[in-house]
Write a structure and sequence with these properties.
Helix content of chain B: over 70%
Largest interface: A-B, 79 and 79 residues
Shape of chain A: globular
CATH class of the largest domain in chain B: Mainly Alpha
Largest sheet of chain A: 2 strands, antiparallel
Shape of chain B: globular
Number of helices of chain B: 11
Number of strands of chain A: 2
Order of helices and strands of chain A: HHEEHHHHHHHHHH
CATH architecture of the largest domain in chain B: Orthogonal Bundle
Mean pLDDT of chain A: 90
Helix content of chain A: over 70%
CATH superfamily of the largest domain in chain A: MetI-like
CATH architecture of the largest domain in chain A: Orthogonal Bundle
Structural class of chain A: mainly alpha
Oligomer: heterodimer
Low-confidence stretches of chain B: none
Order of helices and strands of chain B: HHHHHHHHHHH
Number of strands of chain B: 0
């Protein structure tokens, strides 16, 4: 190595070390910041009581927002996974036309590229206004479902495609119908992986704000009684508390609770994948 | 009996698949139909070339050039900051870290991708914007720069995982030969791994750019939302934040309402262009 190259090598090493350190510091800083500031405002009362005070949110807790977020996640997962599993099963097991398969992939890719605010716009006109569902749990849940549909579809299709071909072929050879092969063999075998994917997608749905601003989230609502009630949601609540300058202390607490719930969801999903691997 | 079950199942699967695929058509038709009403009043070229956004004024004051530029500017700042750091981290991850810690770091990076954007906006507003105003005496901490930095952090996981994947392959392919030849690791990474990962670095850039342009919450909370010509250190506005902020106030069916849809339409077209670019990079380009 000549001198020039030695200097270049040196600069290269500084660059990659600096990059890695920056990334790690940013991660530690974000989690640390929210934890340190949020921990003092999170207690039993904060988690289990209604927002109170004037303006509302300055006192009390965030219980309706926690429940609202969980409901939204469940509806989004239910809606998205029904459609995503069907699409994946169709493309892998029923579709024999390569061109149609290509078109399906293209469409799913396009949907994944649509920004969440445009989905919110769509949910607002179609669900809230045209179908008269109003700003409600159902409208917001379905909009979030549309958002996570491509994510789930791509991953479940991958799981099905990588499924053990021998089992499928033997099953067909024994004269077992596709329906039975799917429901009695494939789906039970890869149950954990599939649920893991859906859980992770549910986490994304729970954290999203843009799609629900227009379709259902409100500043204050009690725990929703029906699908047509407007709802509170953690990310929207955090946005309102900060954006309107209502209460910084409560905002820190809300952020911490949101991050903790998402961490639990993430860990759950990882555990499911690992035990799924051992299971097989 | 079995046959009937099978047939019914097949029909259900087909219907559900068709429904999912039609959703995209619905989305596009709805956005287009609602924007068309506006484009009949204000032609599209005036909408994207005019510099005034005033929903209360006459129709010709509904145009979004500064907002389009703001959207692009914030994303570009994000990319410029995130790319070197992301690529550098991917190099370390693919070539300098052992298998076990590598897996841990990858899942941490995945978690970073899973943090909701509103949290990034929240931390950005309280830390970054405050820092700009108090420590650096900027007239306004809410700026293109603040938006760019927050976006950069959000783009990192995408860049790292896209680059790491291909670099990991390159490294595994060539490390034995270069070890046998007695070449140092950093020399090998600089001369082989990096140049050969050009394509995935490019793809990561375009992917992150698309994500950045479509991002709503994180950007909206730190850019100040003023529809003026963007400058690095002054307030700006992006299309997603414009829609998120004003849609709730716009009277349904008014010109303002339709103009916001037109904004969404322009955004989708911009992202389409970015995605077509990505498609060509992935399939056609040979670098």
């Amino acid at each position: 190595m000549d001198m020039d190259d030695r200097i270049r090598d040196y600069i290269f090493k500084i660059w990659i070390a600096f990059s890695a350190i920056t990334v790690i510091s940013v991660i530690v800083y974000i989690f640390g910041y929210i934890f340190v500031h949020g921990i003092s405002s999170v207690d039993m009362e904060f988690i289990f009581s209604q927002p109170k005070g004037m303006p509302i949110g300055t006192e009390g807790g965030i219980f309706p927002a926690i429940v609202g977020s969980i409901y939204l996640m469940l509806i989004a997962c239910l809606f998205a996974s029904t459609l995503a599993i069907a699409t994946a099963v169709y493309t892998v097991f029923y579709c024999d036309n390569k061109r149609i398969e290509g078109i399906i992939h293209l469409i799913v890719k396009c949907m994944a590229g649509i920004p969440s605010i445009v989905l919110g716009l769509f949910g607002y006109t179609l669900l809230v206004l045209n179908l008269r569902l109003g700003r409600s749990l159902l409208s917001a849940g379905i909009t979030l479902g549309i958002m996570i549909y491509p994510y789930i579809e791509v991953r479940i299709e991958k799981i099905l495609r990588e499924a053990d071909k021998d089992i499928i072929d033997s099953s067909y050879a024994l004269g077992v119908s596709k329906f039975h092969t799917l429901f009695k063999l494939i789906l039970p075998l890869y149950k954990r992986d599939i649920i893991s994917v859906i859980t992770l997608a549910g986490g994304f749905a729970m954290g999203a704000t843009a799609p629900i601003i227009l379709t259902g989230a409100v500043l204050f609502a009690p725990v929703p009684k029906s699908l047509s009630s407007p709802i509170m949601a953690l990310p929207f609540h955090l946005y309102i508390l900060t954006g309107e300058g209502i209460s910084l202390e409560k905002a820190y607490g809300t952020a911490l609770v949101l991050i903790l719930i998402l961490l639990i969801i993430n860990i759950l999903s990882i555990v499911l994948t690992i035990t799924g691997k051992e299971h097989n | 009996m079995n046959n009937l079950q099978e047939r019914i199942f097949k029909i259900i699967i087909r219907l559900l698949t068709l429904f999912s695929l039609l959703l995209l058509a619905f989305i596009i038709i709805f956005i287009f139909r609602e924007s068309l009403v506006f484009f009949e009043v204000v032609p599209i070229y005036k909408f994207i070339s005019g510099t005034k956004w005033n929903p209360l004024g006459p129709p010709d004051q509904l145009s979004i050039l500064p907002i389009i530029l703001g959207t692009v500017y914030v994303s570009l700042v994000g990319i410029v900051l995130a790319l070197p750091i992301g690529v550098g981290t991917a190099v370390v991850l693919s070539s300098y870290v052992d298998e076990r810690p590598k897996r841990v770091i990858r899942s941490v990076v995945d978690i970073l991708a899973g943090i909701p954007s509103v949290i990034y906006g929240f931390v950005g507003l309280l830390v970054l914007v405050k820092f700009f105003e108090i420590k650096l005496f900027f007239p306004s901490g809410e700026s293109v720069l603040a938006g760019g930095i927050v976006l950069a952090v959000m783009m990192l996981p995408y860049i790292i995982s896209t680059c790491d994947e291909s670099m990991d392959k390159m490294y595994k392919e060539y490390s034995q030969y270069s070890q046998a030849l007695g070449v140092s690791k950093s020399y090998m990474v600089r001369k082989i791994v990096l140049p050969r990962s050009k394509k995935s670095i490019f793809a990561a850039t375009v992917l992150a750019l698309g994500r950045g342009m479509g991002e709503t919450m994180a950007v909206m909370m730190v850019i100040g939302n003023a529809p003026i010509m963007p400058k690095l250190l002054s307030k700006t506005q992006t299309i997603p934040s414009l829609i998120a902020l004003e849609m709730g106030m716009a009277e349904v069916g008014s010109l303002h309402y339709h103009a916001l849809f037109s904004g969404g339409f322009v955004l989708v077209i911009m992202l389409l262009i970015v995605n077509i670019l990505l498609y060509f990079i992935e399939n056609k380009m040979d670098i």
